[in-house]
Write a structure and sequence with these properties.
Number of helices: 30
Helix content: 40-55%
Low-confidence stretches: 38-54, 629-647
Strand content: 15-25%
Radius of gyration: 37 Å
Largest sheet: 4 strands, antiparallel
RNA sequence: GGACCCUUAGCUCAGUUGGCUAGAGCGUACGAUUCACAUUCGUGAGGUCACAAGUUCGAAUCUUGUAGGGUCCACCA
């Protein structure tokens, strides 16, 4: 026998994955690019397949994990979700394409590399941009590979040949093509705008990458003199006063009405700046007068634009004061603030200070306070893109799970500001723009588009241009992900685009999903995916966010090696629903591991039954069976084969109690899984499988089969369950499939099971048996005395169901014997199951059981009462649907009969 | 300030268009004992569905309000 007494995942998983990969079963069966109709020598198979493309292609692209990182729990969830979908659709016969990816993770990787440089005693400023790019490339290659191995250990059945790295040539090509199109369409502009700038990392961020934190600060009140009077302004950043180019007051503020248009003297300088009227000044806040520093504050920048104010930059990119009086020049912002406050105080300008709490922008990576910095950057005018996206969303072209996120997304797109796509880090896709440096060529444009970003300098009609040193925001290239992964092109649109579903974290709805939709529509005219499934955060077992500092991080790979890949997948899917942040604990993985082991032992039992049958059967039968098997195996694949497999697998009969029932239960289970998967209810699908396999198949069917041994049925039902569980627990199901003596090929490429035939009446009879068995067990447990003293025989009167199933009931209840009742009823009558059944219990025992019995009668009486009250309500009888009223009537009858039976139990004593 | 989500058993969560006695896993109590599986088997206990009002024959489910928790966006001179 091949089956060990327990399932050891580590002995099988690596080999199984390798076998799948070698066999090429992860690849889509329908070609990804349709063949050109005009070309010769077209493969027939491909053409035939092309006809049904729209129906049978099923594609998912993986959100690319960091190429040189390790997978975390979120990736574990992603793979569990996506791979279950892929495997389910593969079994359903779709041509599935699960496309893996690797992210160069521009900023993340850059931060890691910069730390590494620092450790080596170097800084980024020692190298040119191209040198740095080459160095990071090598650095990434050196670290690469872990993540891909980890995806394999999670069982991701993705098409490895099609792995896309975010810096691959086709990605860069596509990104440049889009950028060029946008440039020509006038959607790209270079603007001097305020950007969030990290003085430590020396790069700008998009709004979305900024982390706002509430902090304590001080609000200072400073006097700006206007001829005789003075105007008090409030500020949290006194050091920026050197960059002030106006003071704003609210136009409706009566206190300052007369001052509008006049000028004030800027303290510590010899400048006069105007007093302007602007809505931005809130009369309720501070003193109602606000200094305007267009170069260092986002709001002030906008005020400046409205009033055409000059922008004076007084803080440099590395956080030092510039363009300020000699005394302050070169100080850090902090030093300068101290000095300015000191000098203001000395000059009598400082009129007050208040402690306040305000939110401050931080770098999401290093926590440094971000400096709003005036910089020339490339921007995308998002108005049209967002508008188009909203139109398609409102047209319901993408289905969201959870549904509520659609509105959230539309709301976000409606308020989107222009997108800064320039980053000042070398690790990324170079922006394909070149700046004119030949001064005398006045007719030529200042900037030109050119793909030759490998060159620092290019020449065009005698004019020299130098490359912009910046790289793209990673989200700009990532927004092309569905397009580039599926190899979509204008000439050859692939049947795998749009994707069937985009599965990713709810936290990157804006950063990624929104941008993919805008970009997909802009490039292809179609939405990039038909559905979006968003998963929430995986929290620790107490509902806390996982973080290194809290020390509550769970490593998925550790769980995989401890309990097996399947256990992890089952565990993480359990109790999870779309878009919700949910807790996760090792317990659920243990439950998953137990299910795998249960299934393993179920298979072990069935295999041993099959082996025994084989040994006992006569030689000729064996020979005939073997020949049949070989004959069918010799044929080729295809629909004919599928039909034949169907016929063979349906060649069973249901002869014994419980057999029709299990067929019914398995059919229900399969149908439930199909519904659940269509609606992305993963946890429910797993739940259904768990209870069908364990509570129904093992606890009832297999127990009853210990008497009956219907080998063909045991085989086919096991196969059905193995296939049904395969999407969620791929390794154990394949391991079993390979160990079973009669199965062929890989389970991963089998067909989803067809319905089992059964007789519904016989199936229902088994429910009666179950009720009887449960009540016998329950009553025996409830009766006083030790277990051993309770070996009472069971007696029946004129009951053919019991009479026909004496052996079965005896086995399941473990009563010593079951006899026909001779003479008058005695002992304890079973009440719940409506059968003439008595436990042969001595009077004294029944007497002691009386209390429990009375309590039960009371409980049922309460239920009956509630039902009667319902029926006495004329409105209910009139208005509720007829079937419900009838149901209630039936229930009343049942309860009344039950109470009557229970009362006989008491009377019998 | 705006938006969205959540509150159901000790814990983590299901509960689909309102309709049987509100379910599962884990935990827990009692019992079994080696015949596929102790990663086992059997039987229980455990719930004012956050609170209040409303709609309805009927509400965990729909509406409104209150309280608590979470997430995101905007703003904070």
């Amino acid at each position: 026998m091949k089956f060990a007494s327990s399932y050891e995942p580590n002995e099988y998983e690596t080999d199984i994955y390798a076998a799948w990969e070698t066999a090429g079963v992860f690849k889509p069966t329908i070609p990804t690019i349709p063949v050109d109709n005009n070309s010769d020598g077209v493969d027939d198979r491909f053409e035939a397949a092309g006809a049904s493309n729209s129906r049978t292609c099923y594609s998912i692209v993986m959100p690319p994990p960091n190429a040189n990182g390790n997978l975390h729990i979120g990736h574990g969830l992603t793979v569990a979700l996506e791979d279950s979908l892929i495997r389910f659709h593969r079994l359903k016969g779709d041509s599935t394409w699960y496309i893996p990816g690797a992210d160069h993770a521009g900023f993340e990787t850059w931060v890691v590399y910069e730390k590494y440089l620092e450790k080596e005693g170097h800084t980024r400023f020692e190298y040119s941009r191209d040198e740095l790019y080459a160095r990071v490339w090598d650095f990434v290659q050196m670290q690469r590979g872990n993540m891909e191995l980890q995806l394999r250990s999670l069982g991701a059945s993705c098409s490895w040949d099609d792995l896309t790295f975010t810096l691959d040539e086709n990605v860069v090509d596509r990104v440049y093509t889009t950028f060029e199109k946008m440039w020509n369409d006038g959607l790209i502009y270079r603007g001097e705008k305020l950007v969030n700038f990290c003085p430590k990392h020396q790069t700008a961020f998009a709004d979305i990458e900024v982390e706002h934190k509430d902090e304590k600060g001080t609000l200072w009140e400073i006097a700006y003199e206007v001829s005789e009077v003075c105007l008090i302004v409030s500020t949290t950043r006194p050091e920026t006063l050197f960059g002030d180019t106006a003071v704003a007051v609210n136009p409706d503020d009566p206190r300052y009405k007369d001052l509008i248009g006049k000028t004030v003297h800027l303290p510590l300088t010899d400048r006069e700046i105007p007093i302007i009227a602007d809505e931005h000044a809130d009369p309720e806040y501070g003193t109602g007068a606000v200094k305007i520093t267009p170069a260092h504050d986002f709001d002030d920048f906008e005020v400046g634009e409205r009033h055409n104010l000059p922008r004076i930059q007084v803080i440099s990119e590395d956080g030092h004061m510039i363009n300020v009086p000699e005394k302050y020049n070169g100080l850090t912002t902090e030093e300068c603030r101290k000095q300015v406050l000191k000098d203001l105080k000395a000059g009598g300008f400082l009129k007050g200070e208040k402690k306040i709490v305000h939110s401050v922008a931080h770098c999401y990576k290093c926590g440094t306070v971000l400096e709003p910095m005036l910089k020339e950057q490339w921007f995308i005018d998002v108005e049209k893109l967002a508008g188009t996206a909203i139109k398609h969303l409102e047209n319901d072209e993408i289905k969201f799970h959870p549904e509520s996120k659609k509105r959230v997304l539309i709301n976000y797109l409606g308020n989107l500001k222009d997108w800064n796509i320039s980053r000042q880090i070398p690790w990324g896709i170079a922006i394909p723009m070149f700046r004119k440096v030949t001064a005398e060529a006045t007719d030529e444009p200042d900037w030109i588009f050119d793909r030759r970003t490998n060159l620092k300098e290019i020449e065009k009609s005698g004019v020299t241009y130098v490359r912009d040193e910046d790289t793209f925001d990673t989200w700009f290239s990532s927004s092309h992900w569905p397009i580039v992964c599926t190899d979509w092109s204008e000439e050859n649109p692939t049947p795998y685009y749009p994707l069937n579903v985009m599965e990713t974290g709810a936290d990157i709805l804006f950063a990624w999903v929104a941008r993919m939709i805008m970009m997909g529509l802009y490039v292809t005219g179609e939405v990039p995916f038909k559905e979006v499934y968003l998963h929430g955060l995986v929290l620790d077992e107490h509902g806390q966010k996982m973080s290194k500092s809290k020390g509550n991080v769970i490593n998925p790979i550790e769980l995989v090696s401890k309990y097996g890949s399947d256990a992890f997948r089952l565990g993480i899917l359990r109790g999870r629903s779309a878009g919700m942040n949910q807790a996760f604990s090792e317990n659920s993985v243990v439950a998953g591991r137990n299910l795998c082991n249960k299934l393993w032992n179920i298979s072990r039992l069935i295999q041993s039954t099959v082996d025994e049958e084989f040994e006992n059967s006569d030689f000729e039968t064996v020979l005939r069976q073997r020949e049949q098997g070989e004959r069918s195996a010799a044929r080729d694949d295809g629909p004919a084969r599928a039909r034949r497999e169907d016929a063979i697998s349906n060649s069973y009969t249901t002869d014994n109690m419980g057999e029709d029932w299990i067929c019914r239960e398995i059919n229900d289970c399969l149908a439930q899984i199909e519904t659940d998967m269509r609606e992305y209810r993963f946890a429910e699908a797993v739940e259904t499988l768990y209870s069908t396999i364990w509570d129904k198949y093992a606890d009832w069917f297999l127990e009853s089969q210990k008497i009956f041994r219907n080998v063909p049925l045991l085989k086919i039902t096991l196969e059905h369950l193995l296939i049904a569980l395969h999407p969620f627990a791929p390794f154990v199901t394949e391991a079993i499939w390979q160990n079973l003596s009669w199965t062929e090929g890989f389970i991963i490429t089998k067909n989803w099971p067809s319905e089992l035939k059964f007789d519904p009446i016989t199936a229902e009879q088994f429910e009666n048996i179950r009720t009887i068995v449960s009540e016998v067990r329950g009553t025996l447990t409830a009766l006083p005395g030790t277990f051993k003293s309770k070996n009472f025989p069971l007696m029946y009167d004129k009951d053919s169901l019991v009479e026909d199933n004496i052996l079965l009931i005896k086995t399941l209840t473990r009563v010593p014997e079951i006899n026909p009742l001779n003479g008058n009823p005695r002992g304890l009558r079973l009440a719940l199951a409506n059968h003439e059944l008595y436990l042969d219990v001595p009077e004294a025992t029944v007497e002691a059981y009386k209390g429990a019995l009375t309590a039960k009668i009371l409980a049922v009486g309460g239920e009956l009462n509630a039902l009667n009250i319902r029926m006495m309500n004329p409105n209910y009888v009139e208005r509720a649907p007829e079937h419900l009223v009838k149901e209630t009537r039936d229930q009343i009858k049942e309860k009344e009969a039950l109470i009557a039976r229970l009362k006989t139990q008491l009377e019998l004593i």
